[in-house]
Amino acid sequence: MPPLDEGTPLFVQIAEQLADDIVDGVLAEGARAPSANELAAFYRINPATAAKGINVLVDEAVLEKRRGIGMFVASGAREQLRAGRRKRFAEQYLDPMLAEAKRLGIDTDTLVSLIRGSGWHNGGDTP
Amino acid sequence: MTPVISATALGRRYRDQVALNDVSLAIQPGTVTGLLGRNGAGKTTLMRIVTGLEFPTSGAIRVFGEAPAENESVLRRMVFVREDQAYPDLRVTHVIRVASWFYPNWNGDLARQLLADFDLPLGRRIRKLSRGMRSAVGIVIGLAARAELTLFDEPYAGLDAVARQLFYDRLLADFAEHPRTVVLSTHLIDEVADLLEHVVMLDRGRVVLDAPADDVRGTAMTVSGPATAVEEFVAGRPVWRRQRLGARAAVTVAGPLDLTEQARARALHLRLEPLSLQQLLVHAAGSPADEKVSA
């Protein structure tokens, strides 16, 4: 079971983990999403909290309700989520990385070469 | 929605001791509420008043819209499992059968399943059971009763961590299939935190917190790092607790931090750590605001 952290409201974490599964393709478009009760049992949380998490994705039209059957991943949901995450990528991943690089005195060139996967471990002298 | 339990300015005094003081609250139907607080905070007294075992000295209590005391139509809609509940000295199987006559929504299949889950010896007399086994009998009755209002008062004396987890799992599973109103009093807060939809905290007979569990989460953060940076970051925020160790400081501040503030904290090389429900409640119960660790 993936750990749930303390600060973020639980329902937000449920929504994020469902979104992760959709982005990763674990939950394919058109597939049935887990029900609130299934999520509640899996994460050992209150079913109302799980339902609230599902509703976050329903409001974003990532999940759609089919009456009497359950929740399904909407078509186009994966690309929609990926587009949203690309927008937040710099803020969530680059900014903290750059801050830490600055703290450690890693300059931009070194950083770029690191990203390119050049031989940092071997002294950083390969192209 | 009409609350299942509604208390208005409830008070309970024993001779020289105030057990409940001006307690007002409303428990909504279909929720799992944690009734939290230290020993002697008034949790059991409140539950005894809700279940009609005790009268308030002042104020009013309504359960399903009526006064519960000696009110058969209200009492048969609830089950109350107490810590160290006493049972007549019968065999386990007989205690369960007697319980099945009391509760209109009793489910025999669930009872049998739970008896097996908790590994209870059906033929053994109650007096010969261990403390943990007796607690398990109470849990079986509390769940299998499927009462509209289900109250558990520290129901797990003597139960080990595995058995407690079994209780939480079975409670969640059956609650999901058969929603009802559950009030669970406990001091093992972190164990049950994620099961709760609503949190009521009592301290010395008063309600000090009454909020949805989601709102309680992230209401305070501990910011730690170089003292000057920490102080710069927390300036202007209500401080709950302040600790120093040489040039480092850890300050607990109220209020959630938005993404901009979190980014700013990272830029200042500060660590952010949200308080757990348990830590929040320890604070709500009143802890010293300013503690200094001298270096």
Structure description:
The complex is a heterodimer of chains A (127) and B (295). Chain A has 127 residues and is mainly alpha-helical. Chain A contains five helices and two strands. Chain B has two domains: 5-214, P-loop containing nucleotide triphosphate hydrolases (Rossmann fold), CATH 3.40.50; 220-284, Alpha-Beta Plaits, CATH 3.30.70. Chain B has a six-stranded mixed beta sheet, sandwiched between helices. A four-stranded antiparallel beta sheet of chain B has the order 11-12-10-13. A three-stranded antiparallel beta sheet of chain B has the order 2-1-4, covered by helices on one side. In chain B, α6 (161-177) links the parallel β6 (149-153) and β7 (181-186). The longest helix of chain B has 17 residues, at 161-177. Chain B is globular. The interface between A and B is medium-sized, with 25 and 31 residues.
Topology:
The complex is a heterodimer of chains A (127) and B (295).
Chain A: H1 10-23, H2 36-43, H3 47-59, E1 63-66, E2 70-73, H4 77-104, H5 108-115
Antiparallel strand pairs in A: 1-2
Helix pairs in contact in A: 1-3, 2-3
Chain B: E1 5-14, E2 17-27, E3 32-36, H1 43-50, E4 58-63, H2 72-75, E5 78-81, H3 92-102, H4 108-117, H5 131-144, E6 149-153, H6 161-177, E7 181-186, H7 189-192, E8 198-203, E9 206-212, H8 213-216, E10 220-226, H9 227-234, E11 239-245, E12 248-254, H10 259-267, E13 271-274, H11 277-284
Parallel strand pairs in B: 3-7, 3-8, 5-6, 6-7
Antiparallel strand pairs in B: 1-2, 1-4, 8-9, 10-12, 10-13, 11-12
**Number of folding domains of chain A?**
2
Class by alpha and beta content of chain A: mainly alpha
Assigned CATH superfamily of the largest domain in chain B: P-loop containing nucleotide triphosphate hydrolases
Mean pLDDT metric of chain B: 90
Calculate Rg of chain A over CA atoms: 19 Å
